[in-house]
UniProtKB/TrEMBL annotation:
Coiled coil: none annotated. This is NBD/HSP70 family sugar kinase. The keyword Cell wall biogenesis/degradation does not apply. Keywords: Carbohydrate metabolism, Kinase, Transferase, Xylose metabolism. Transcriptional repressor of xylose-utilizing enzymes. GO terms for molecular function: kinase activity.
Length: 393
């Protein structure tokens, strides 16, 4: 005989009701009962509980379809805050949002990432947000941290561009702040950010290019991580046999030829000094030969890498998040022109609309779902992230 856990059923129904309120934006008890298939007494009890938890609020009287006019309810998106952090190879960026993804604050700091100081850096950043954040019922409900490396079960397995491998600072941060901490691969977060804030494509790959090259893969609306989080590490696929040495141990890896870091290092070597991306971009726009050579190299190797991805995963959409495609006109078109294979089957290759904010939006999306106990599949239908996420409130 199967024993039904009444508490579990109650939690399941409460999640179902909350999801419907978020989806509809404005809804009555009667409509919740009808759509969710729950009796009116159950719905009334759940709505009362959600009001007491400050997750929904009564917003007035709706139009009548016969009989008494209904009381309407909406999601209380300002009940709490979500904080996301992205640790790049020479920067830490961060974003604070409300529970619908509406942006409150964004910060970016250039900093040398060191194993011995990263925990204190993060504690300082989080403390600054706690002090400056608006007052809400729940405060900060979760903190996500994007890592440029391989993550499995909240542990950094490998981080080739900074020495954070096996460093377990998530537990230390949770103890310090008593806030749930989620570590995730930066490219995976970027894919989630693009998926829920710029497109609604069921099958997409987001290629994130910076110090290295990674990809977040969405298959049938779900993030694909592979065994122990190793999927999407396209930067360590070999494009040039016996080529340049890579920190991963192989030779000729994709990111040694097409990452922003490797290309800027090559251009800086040519110039005999450190060069910024803007200098490279300006030189390219004035048709300087070596700058053109650098951008052409990016296009050439990016087309090879994307060809391999398309033929491996057959995505509908490929999004490239790189300064080379976001800021230099014509690079996307030239990459597509370089894809000659008749096997390629996709709808579009686009540059990112979100840029450096993509992993931060993806991180806040994870925090919010975890807090509201909404699963990833249901999130496809309710569009929890607000369309005005780019506005600072």
């Amino acid at each position: 005989m199967t024993i039904v856990d009444s508490h579990f059923i109650r939690e399941l129904n409460e999640s179902k009701v909350l999801e419907m309120i978020i989806k509809k934006r404005l809804i009555s008890r009667a409509e919740i009962s009808k759509v969710c298939g729950l009796n009116k007494a159950t719905v009334s009890s759940i709505v009362k509980s959600l009001v007491q938890k400050n997750l929904i609020e009564e917003v007035g009287i709706g139009d009548s379809k016969g009989g008494r006019r209904p009381v309407m309810f909406r999601f209380q998106e300002k009940a709490g805050l979500s904080l996301s952090i992205d640790i790049g190879y020479n920067y830490i960026s961060s974003m604070l949002t409300y529970l619908d993804g509406t942006k409150i604050d964004y910060r970016n700091t250039t900093v040398e990432i060191k194993r011995e100081s990263i925990l204190n850096e993060l504690i300082t950043i989080i403390n600054n947000y706690i002090k400056a954040s608006p007052k809400t019922y729940y405060g900060i409900i979760g903190i996500s941290i994007g890592i440029h490396g391989i993550i499995n079960d909240n542990e950094i397995i490998f981080s080739p561009n900074y020495n954070l491998s096996k460093l377990n600072f998530s537990e230390e941060l949770e103890k310090h702040f008593n806030i749930p901490i989620v570590l995730e691969n930066e490219a995976n977060l970027s894919a989630l950010g693009e998926k829920f804030c710029s497109t609604n494509t069921a099958n997409l790959i987001c290629i994130s290019i910076g110090s290295g090259i990674g990809s977040g893969i969405i298959i049938d609306n779900k993030l694909f991580k592979g065994r122990k989080g190793f999927s999407g590490e396209i930067g360590h696929t070999i494009l040039v046999p016996h080529g340049l040495e890579c920190p991963c141990g192989n030779y000729g890896c994709f990111e040694q030829y097409a990452s922003e870091k490797s290309l800027l290092m090559e251009y800086s070597k040519y110039k005999g000094r450190d060069v910024t991306f803007n200098e490279l971009k300006n030189a390219y726009n004035t048709k300087e030969n070596y700058a053109v050579r650098i951008v052409d190299k990016f296009i050439h190797f990016m087309a090879q890498g994307i060809n391999n991805l398309i033929n491996s995963f057959n995505p509908e959409l490929v999004i490239i998040n790189s300064k080379f495609t976001n800021e230099i006109d014509g690079t996307i078109e030239k990459i597509e022109e370089s894809l000659f294979s008749k096997m390629n089957n996709y709808s579009a290759i686009n540059s990112s609309k979100l840029g450096k904010e993509a992993p931060l939006l993806g991180g806040n999306y994870i925090n919010i779902l975890n807090f509201l106990n909404i699963n990833e599949y249901e999130a496809q239908n309710i569009n929890i992230m607000a369309p005005n996420h780019n506005e600072i409130h």
